[in-house]
Design a protein that fits this description.
467 residues; alpha+beta; five-stranded antiparallel sheet; 42% helix; elongated
């Protein structure tokens, strides 16, 4: 009787896309980096919540006036024609971010990113309501009791109120906030205002209150490609392995195995506080990780522990790969020169674009309903529509003249009052002698000049049709 064939057991490999840590309850810590982070929170939020209440010449200082297609920035008014300036600003912001990343890692993520700022605010509210990180952990593991429901309900209520006020402020930059609040109180909101109030409140609540570190770990694309901007001189939050290892607990365990040999210990006491304070739940002692947002909280925590055990601070610090290896910093970093050069180029381009920006724009449309008509005096006339776009918030008069054919002139008024910060459509008639040229279309030029500001003038091409 033959023995049964051996059965090959195939172990199924399970791919984990992320480490499952459960909910992270970061421990609060004090220190210079924590103070700097909260300084950025106050700085950014004072601007965000306060700028919409500022007034400038009787109107909101910062107002995205979508209905009239313009953006008010204090005394500056930007129109859709100024989109190039916006593009340059966005390019400068992106290039500046790359430069900062190449120098010192994800500083923007750790200190100024809206996700970091609002997560810090929501976590501060949570700590005031539910207690420190240990109390919150116990509350998570506790059964549903009236106290737990009360604490959780209070926390979510405060989160909802803050998210709602954030949404009101955001929409207040598009619908003037002094008009928006009475409209909310009287339930007289438009459909788009209702949509954005609900969407932005829910978005803030979910992102900062519920998703938190998951956004930085799994949703933010910047964490995935930041590594290509690093080099051996980039200063990131790093653990000094040569100084810290072996850790105290590891040294004691090794001594037990070696029959009581005297342990050789590094400065790391293996307290784990650096992990407890990390908002993304990583262990910086495992080396550089894409989840690290360079917030520096582990530096504050480690420095505090080192001070208590009478050892030098800086076991965890902002340091480059070469610095940790004991090598001098390498000069001649091409990427920094590239980013700096791009910033200089676009700053110059933006400045030139701003200086060349005309405060008067004109569109000229020839009346195509009648190509040409003969007037009573025998002259040939063409009709035109001029759209005078006054890009300043002041009333200005505009003089219009025309050239390009012998004896050409405007019939009727040549001076028109412009609309402050708006467009005025005027109708003009141009006449030439019947013998001014051969039949067909001839190029002509309209010259428009601001009476109150003679330096503001523009020339626009058009055509005149002779029968």
């Amino acid at each position: 009787m033959n023995a049964p064939a051996p059965v090959n057991k195939v172990r199924e490999a399970k791919l984990e896309l992320y480490r499952k840590k459960g909910k992270i309850h970061a421990r609060e810590v004090r220190g210079r980096f924590n103070s700097l982070r909260w300084g950025m929170v106050w700085f950014t939020q004072l601007i965000f919540f306060g700028a919409c209440w500022l007034q400038w010449n009787g109107r909101q200082a910062v107002h995205f006036d979508i209905a009239h297609e313009k953006l008010h920035l204090f005394g500056l008014v930007l129109w859709p024609q100024d989109a190039l300036l916006l593009a340059i600003v966005l390019i400068l912001a992106a290039t500046g971010l790359f430069l900062v990343t190449a120098v010192a890692g994800r500083l923007f993520c750790g200190f100024a990113c809206p996700q970091t700022v609002y997560t810090s605010i929501f976590m501060w509210i949570e700590a005031r309501v539910e207690g420190d990180h240990l109390a919150r952990l116990k509350l998570d593991q506790a059964p549903a009791t009236p106290r737990k429901l009360l604490l959780r309900g209070t926390k979510h209520l405060l989160w909802g109120l803050f998210a709602a006020w954030t949404a009101i402020t955001f929409v207040g930059y598009f619908t003037p906030v002094r008009e928006l609040l009475p409209a909310i109180a009287s339930w007289q909101l438009g459909p788009w205002e209702i949509f954005w109030l609900i969407f932005y409140a829910v978005f803030t609540y979910v992102q900062a209150g519920l998703a938190r570190e998951a956004v930085c770990q799994h949703m933010c694309p910047y964490s995935r490609f930041q590594g290509v901007m690093f080099d051996s001189n980039t200063r990131t939050v790093s653990y000094d392995v040569q100084r810290g290892e072996p850790r105290s607990r590891q040294a004691r365990a090794a001594a037990i195995v070696a029959d009581g040999a005297r342990p050789v210990k590094g400065d790391c006491v293996d307290c784990g506080i650096c992990v407890q304070v990390c908002p993304t739940g990583i262990d910086i002692r495992d080396g550089l990780q894409y989840q690290c947002i360079n917030c520096g909280l582990c530096v504050d925590a480690c420095d505090e522990v080192m001070t208590r055990v009478s050892k030098p601070v800086g076991l965890i610090r902002f340091a480059s790969e070469r610095e940790l290896a004991g090598k001098p910093a390498r000069g001649g970093r091409p990427r920094l020169a590239l980013y700096g050069g791009l910033i200089a180029v676009f700053v110059g381009l933006g400045a030139w674009t701003a200086t060349q920006r005309s405060l008067l724009l004109v569109d000229i449309l020839r009346d195509r309903g009648s190509l040409a008509r003969e007037a009573a005096d025998g002259r040939i006339e063409n009709a035109y529509t001029l759209k005078l776009m006054n890009l300043v918030e002041e009333a200005r008069d505009f003089e219009v003249s025309v050239s390009g054919l012998p004896g050409i002139e405007l019939v009727g008024a040549t001076r028109f009052a412009g609309v402050p910060g708006g467009i005025r459509e005027v109708h003009a008639t141009v006449a030439v002698p019947a013998d001014a040229g051969r039949a067909g279309a001839h190029p002509i030029h309209f010259e428009i000049r601001a009476v109150q500001d003679p330096a503001t003038r523009i020339s626009e091409k058009s055509t005149f049709v002779l029968p």
